[in-house]
Amino acid sequence: MLRVAREFFHLPESERLKCYSDDPKKAIRLSTSFNVRTEKVSNWRDFLRLHCYPLESFIDQWPSNPPAFREAVGTYSTEARALALRLLEAISESLGLERGHMVKAMGRHAQHMAVNYYPPCPQPELTYGLPGHKDPNAVTLLLQDGVSGLQVRRDGRWVAVNPVPGALVINIGDQLQALSNDRYKSVLHRVIVNSESERISVPTFYCPSPDAVVAPAEALVDGGHRLAYRPFTYQEYYEEFWNMGLEAASCLDRFRPIA
């Protein structure tokens, strides 16, 4: 996966630009920063966004260059989905719910990935690869190359999550925070850049389907745990997230029930 990602971003610009779009509704697109339509300051990142599930609906739209891209990314995305489902089952059990609860709660499911490329930055102190934010999806599986850049907020300070060879970083997103009624917390994180080395990362975002209604199980709402968020569809949530942009504050606060 990392090899074909690097090969793609080392293609001539004319070849890469065949995939370019700043339309967030496109299932396959190359873009830069986060939302170039609304940002006043851009982030130091190029990314290739790929929708991955169901695989047969999207793979023919993926880049055909480099030649091994579709096969390698297709295999990786299939294995990533299998792992995401296992994680969701384990999280369900940890909350005292039936093993398949979270999987069922996410409707028809959706999966996409961002193949991120952070080139060396001549003045890294002036920008971020991505500023502090919380992921909008349910669970993220992050594959990193050997270059550090990811940081998480813990106890009031930013802590580096250095790459471990052969390992994935698993990140909880806002949808699991809502589905667990705040038992699980989404993680505030950011990406810094450097002046010496390019960096590749591949987050796989596992999500509810757009029409899935996100609400916790009745067993998770009791006298000690009031309903933290009103029910909402993932489509409703994502539109708020996209319009708000990447901020340290979570979009979830907009879905608190009215007292």
TrEMBL record:
Transmembrane segments: none annotated. The keyword Transferase does not apply. Residues 109-208 form the Fe2OG dioxygenase domain. Pfam families: 2OG-FeII_Oxy, DIOX_N. Keywords: Dioxygenase, Iron, Metal-binding, Oxidoreductase. InterPro entries: DIOX_N (IPR026992), IPNS-like_FE2OG_OXY (IPR044861), IPNS-like_sf (IPR027443), Oxoglu/Fe-dep_dioxygenase_dom (IPR005123), Plant_2OG-oxidoreductases (IPR050295). One of its GO terms (biological process) is defense response to oomycetes. Belongs to the iron/ascorbate-dependent oxidoreductase family. This is Fe2OG dioxygenase domain-containing protein. It comes from Hordeum vulgare subsp. vulgare.
